């Protein structure tokens, strides 16, 4: 029964490592290429872990600041108004909770 699942021609079955089409055997991964890739990965890990060179920090900051898409003046006014309105609402909520908590504590602790 398992013979039905097997191909009749044994030459159609893959054998061994497959080669990439159009790449010579010398272009496959060698120990030198592996070592170079591993060194690059180690360098990337060092940079990600924050143990990279301190001297690279400020040039990277300058590069990132050049990539920033800065908001227009109108957007800044809108964002500032939204933040202030949100701040006023949250302040009112906190003040209300504080006032109600104060009334509750007064009722519990002070008996007339």
UniProtKB/TrEMBL annotation:
Localization, UniProt: Cell membrane; Membrane
PROSITE patterns (alphabetical): SECE_SEC61G
Region entry Disordered, spans: 1-25
Broad class of where this protein is predominantly found: membrane
Keywords: Cell membrane, Membrane, Protein transport, Translocation, Transmembrane, Transmembrane helix, Transport
InterPro entries for this protein: SecE_bac, SecE_sf, Translocase_SecE/Sec61-g
Any coiled-coil regions, as ranges: none
One Gene Ontology term from the biological process aspect of the record: protein targeting
The organism's place on the tree of life at top rank: Bacteria
Key word Protein transport present: yes
Topology with respect to the bilayer: Single-pass membrane protein
Membrane-traversing stretches: 76-97
GO MF annotations, alphabetized: protein transmembrane transporter activity
GO cellular component, one term: plasma membrane
Entries under Pfam families matching the protein: SecE (PF00584)
Oligomer and partners: Component of the Sec protein translocase complex. Heterotrimer consisting of SecY, SecE and SecG subunits. The heterotrimers can form oligomers, although 1 heterotrimer is thought to be able to translocate proteins. Interacts with the ribosome. Interacts with SecDF, and other proteins may be involved. Interacts with SecA.
Function: Essential subunit of the Sec protein translocation channel SecYEG. Clamps together the 2 halves of SecY. May contact the channel plug during translocation.
Family: Belongs to the SecE/SEC61-gamma family.
NCBIfam families found in the cross-reference section: PRK07597.9-4, secE_bact
Protein name: Protein translocase subunit SecE
Species this chain originates from: Corynebacterium argentoratense DSM 44202
Lineage summary: Bacteria, Bacillati, Actinomycetota, Actinomycetes, Mycobacteriales
